[in-house]
Design a protein that fits this description.
The protein folds into two domains: 152 residues, DNA polymerase, domain 1; 192 residues, Intergrase catalytic core (hpI Integrase, Chain A, Orthogonal Bundle), CATH 1.10.443.10. Helices cover 49% and strands 9% of the residues. A hairpin with a 6-residue loop joins strand 5 and strand 6.
C-alpha cells in the first residue's frame, strides 16, 4: 500500500531534516494503515523540529548537504556514515577550488575556492545533518582538525567588518531621503534600526500589532511586533534564538531625528493597520503592497544613503561601497551611545559584554593611550 507520507510536498529544507525523527518515522512506515491521527502527529512533530532553527539556517543546512552529497557521488565516496578522512578531503577540495561547479555548463570547470569562514560554516551544517541522521561528526579528529588548521593558516584573511554609522552619519543619510511615501518608509527603517540596534531581518520581520492567531500559523514569517506609547516611545518585541526579548526605543530630541515620529508618519500615510510593518511600494509611489519587505532592501538602503550622504568621503569610491550594510546600523548604535555598556548590551540582546565590544567600531579607538600611561 502506498504511504501518503512519502508523496507529500516537501519544503526546500526537508533534505536537511530527513531523518529528523527516525523512530517515529519508522513506526509510521511499519504500520499497514497509519491512522489519520498518527499522520497528523508525525507532521506536527516535523513542524516543531523545523521550528527549532530559523528557516534561513535550515535552507543553508540543506544546501550544505546537497553540495557534500553531490561531491561524494562524483568522487565515488559514500556520504554516510561520516568518515573523517572523507570530510578532510572534502574541505581540501572546497579550499582549493577543485570542486566541480555544477551550475556551469562546462563539467570540468571548478567552483570558486571557498573562504575559511564558509568552510567552517559548511562543517557546522554537515555536523547538524549527520546528527539528524543518527550519526556524529568528530571535528576534533586529526584528519579534519589538521587539514582545517592548514586551511586557516594558508587562506585565512583578516576579518572584514562593516563600518559603524554614527549618529551624525545617520542624520546626514536621512536628509538625502524625500518626503514621499517611499522616503517616509525608508526614514522609519533607518531610524528604528539604528535606535533599536536591530538586525535587518528583525526590522523587516516586524508586524504592526501583536496578532496571536497569525503568529501561531504554520507559515507566519513575522518575528515580532511594535507597540507605541504616546509621549514615551516604542516597545519592540522580538523573537530571537533563545526566546522573546523586548527593545525599548525612546523619542528623539527633535521630530526630524525621532524614530517614533518617523514610524508614526509611515504607519499613518502608508495606511498600515495590521500585518507587516514595512512593505514594498509600487512604482507609482502611492500604493503600498501587502507583502513584507525583503531584508535585502535594508542593506541596499543603508549603502545607498551612506554613499549619497558622503559618509567616509576620505576613501575612494570603490572602498566606500564595500563599507556599509545593514549591520552598520547595529554597530553604529553600539559605537555612538555614550552610556554604560550594560545598557547597550541589553539593547542589542547580547549575552556577554565581550560581544558588545566587538560592535564598538570607532568609539574606543585610542581612548586608552598606553603609550602615555607608560610615561612616554
Amino acid at each position: 500500500m502506498e504511504n501518503p507520507l512519502e508523496n507529500a510536498p516537501k519544503n526546500p529544507a526537508d533534505d536537511a531534516l530527513e531523518g529528523e525523527l527516525p523512530d517515529i518515522v519508522d513506526l509510521v512506515r511499519d504500520m499497514a494503515r497509519p491512522t489519520p491521527h498518527v499522520e497528523d502527529l508525525i507532521e506536527t512533530a516535523k513542524d516543531y523540529a523545523k521550528a527549532a532553527s530559523a528557516q534561513n539556517t535550515l535552507n543553508a543546512y540543506a544546501k550544505d548537504w546537497r553540495h557534500f552529497s553531490a561531491w561524494c557521488r562524483r568522487i565515488g565516496f559514500d556520504p554516510l556514515p561520516p568518515d573523517a578522512k572523507t570530510i578532510g578531503l572534502y574541505i581540501s577540495a572546497c579550499a582549493s577550488g577543485s570542486v566541480i561547479d555544477t551550475a556551469a555548463n562546462d563539467p570540468k570547470r571548478g567552483a570558486p575556492a571557498l573562504s575559511v569562514a564558509t568552510i567552517e560554516r559548511r562543517l557546522s551544517g554537515l555536523a547538524w545533518n549527520f546528527t539528524q541522521r543518527g550519526f556524529s561528526l568528530d571535528r576534533a579528529d586529526r584528519h579534519i582538525a589538521t587539514v582545517l588548521a592548514g586551511i586557516r593558516r594558508k587562506h585565512a584573511k583578516p576579518p572584514r567588518v562593516k563600518e559603524a554609522l554614527l549618529g551624525e552619519d545617520l542624520l546626514a543619510m536621512i536628509a538625502t531621503l524625500g518626503h514621499d511615501l517611499r522616503g517616509l518608509r525608508d526614514r522609519a527603517i533607518l531610524l528604528l534600526g539604528f535606535a533599536g540596534g536591530l538586525r535587518r531581518s528583525e526590522i523587516v520581520g516586524l508586524d504592526v500589532i501583536r496578532d496571536d492567531v497569525s503568529r501561531d500559523q504554520k507559515n507566519s514569517d513575522g518575528t515580532g511586533w511594535i507597540e507605541i506609547f504616546p509621549e514615551k516611545g516604542v516597545l519592540v518585541t522580538l523573537r530571537g534564538k533563545t526566546g522573546w526579548r523586548e527593545v525599548e526605543i525612546g523619542r528623539g530630541t527633535s521630530d526630524q531625528s525621532c524614530p517614533v515620529v518617523a514610524l508614526e508618519s509611515w504607519i499613518r500615510f502608508g495606511r498600515i493597520a495590521r500585518g507587516p510593518l514595512f512593505r514594498r511600494i509600487f512604482k507609482d509611489n502611492n500604493t503600498v503592497d501587502v507583502e513584507r519587505l525583503s531584508d535585502k532592501h535594508v542593506a541596499r538602503l543603508v549603502k545607498q544613503t551612506a554613499l549619497a550622504a558622503g559618509v567616509r568621503s576620505d576613501l575612494p569610491e570603490g572602498e566606500r561601497s564595500l563599507l556599509f550594510a545593514g549591520h552598520s546600523l547595529r554597530s553604529g548604535l553600539a559605537s555612538s551611545a555614550e552610556i554604560e555598556e550594560r545598557y547597550v548590551q541589553k539593547q542589542l540582546g547580547h549575552a556577554s559584554a565581550e560581544m558588545t565590544r566587538k560592535y564598538q567600531r570607532r568609539r574606543d579607538r585610542f581612548r586608552v593611550n598606553l603609550t602615555k600611561a607608560s610615561g612616554l
